Q: What sequence folds into this?
């Protein structure tokens, strides 16, 4: 688990924007401080030295987006200043998809 960066804001479409120091892999799984998977890296943009990362949150089993739980001021949930991490392990589904090709 490597440090990804600090959550800057949540877009109107529910994506999370994070500023980072190093370019992470596309498709990487993003974790919170409790090592719970919260989403997947879908885009890296901005300057090379300090890029921005767009994260698409996973949907919960009830169908609601995980991004709905990000509310400022709730200690048990992620706030805009929360530090996020990226998993060192590849996504199980990505690995399986590569084998089928």
A:
């Amino acid at each position: 688990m490597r440090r990804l960066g600090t959550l800057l804001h949540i877009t109107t479409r529910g994506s999370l924007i994070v500023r980072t120091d190093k370019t992470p892999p596309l498709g990487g799984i993003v974790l919170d401080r409790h090592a719970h998977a919260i989403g997947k890296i879908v885009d890296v943009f901005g300057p090379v030295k300090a890029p921005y990362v767009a994260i698409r949150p996973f949907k919960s089993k009830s169908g609601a987006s995980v991004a709905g739980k990000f509310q400022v001021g709730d200690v048990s949930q992620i706030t805009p200043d929360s530090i996020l991490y990226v998993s060192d392990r590849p996504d199980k589904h990505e690995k399986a998809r590569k084998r089928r090709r």
The first strand starts at residue 2 and ends at 10. Residues 71-76 have pLDDT under 50 and may be disordered.
